[in-house]
Amino acid sequence: MDFHKYVASYMDSRRFVAVLEAAVVCLVISNCVLSSVLLGHRDAVVLVPPHLNDEVRVLADRSSEGYIKAWGLFLGELVGNISPTNLKFIQKSLEPMISPRVYRQITDILNMQAEEIMADHISITFEPKTVTYEKETGLVFVTGQTHVKGPTGPARSFLRTYEFLIELEDFRPMLTWMEMYEGNPHDLSFRTKEKERKAKRKVKHEDD
Q1: DSSP 3-state of 67
Q2: Any idea of the CA torsion for 195, 200, 201, 202, to the nearest 10 degrees?
Q3: 39 sits in which H/E element
Q4: Which of 166, 146, 164 is nearest to 156 (CA)?
Q5: Per DSSP, which regions of the chain are E strands?
Q6: Backbone angles phi, psi at 165, to 5 degrees
Q7: What is the per-residue burial (b if ≥16 Cβ within 10 Å, else e) of 193-203?
Q8: CA-to-CA separations, 117 to 84, 102, 110, 120, 204, in angstroms, rounded
Q9: Residues linked to residue 165 through DSSP beta bridges, in sequence order
Q10: What is the pLDDT of residues 54-99, one digit of tens each?
Q11: 55: helix, coil or strand?
């Protein structure tokens, strides 16, 4: 037996085992890093909705501005053109995306608008002109002309805004707030001015 050859072969084997051990350690570390990344990762769905040229990214609990504005426009056109004949259809269409905590509030708004139409024998149509999104609050404002036509007399038109808060739950858009009113959007700027105006009135009233 050649002792020197044996020693050389043994050392080669040790070096090979050391390389394998280092490779295994690297694989274990990379798998741990990959697992931690995957655990903290949320899937994203990329969509290109109708009437939009750019793609939008939808996560499980939030989405891009374009996606929310598209849903706001859809809701504004749907709710703004409600009538006694299509009330049930619109309610059924909206049911899957209305949050349970505001379901009664929103259905009351729809019923109130339908009752007004039936009582006055009028027809209402809504033509959206602008859709704005407020990043600070997540609100989307759909503003346009509402045309009211009665059985007698000329038709009248006025500016109306539909205000929505649309949140995503497991990729599903959920309507968690809705309000409608005449005039321009009641955004942060508007609310701040109103708050300041009320504060001035209160101070003036106290001075008097």
Answers
A1: helix
A2: 90
A3: helix 3-39
A4: 146
A5: 45-47, 56-58, 123-134, 139-149, 156-169, 172-182
A6: -120, 115
A7: eeeeeeeeeee
A8: 7, 23, 11, 5, 41
A9: 139, 177
A10: 555 555 556 678 888 988 998 999 888 887 778 788 888 888 888 8
A11: coil
pLDDT at position 150 is 80
Distance CA 73, CA 51 (A): 10
Rounded distance between C-alpha atoms, residue 50 and residue 197, angstroms: 41
For residue 165, the one-letter residue type is L
Q: pTM, whole model, 2 decimals?
A: 0.68
The 3-state DSSP class for residue 187 equals: coil
Largest Cα–Cα distance in the chain?
Answer: 119
Average pLDDT of 105-131?
84
Q: What's the rounded mean pLDDT across residues 127-140?
A: 94
Alpha-carbon gap, residue 208 to 188, rounded angstroms: 30
Name the amino acid, one letter, at 26: C
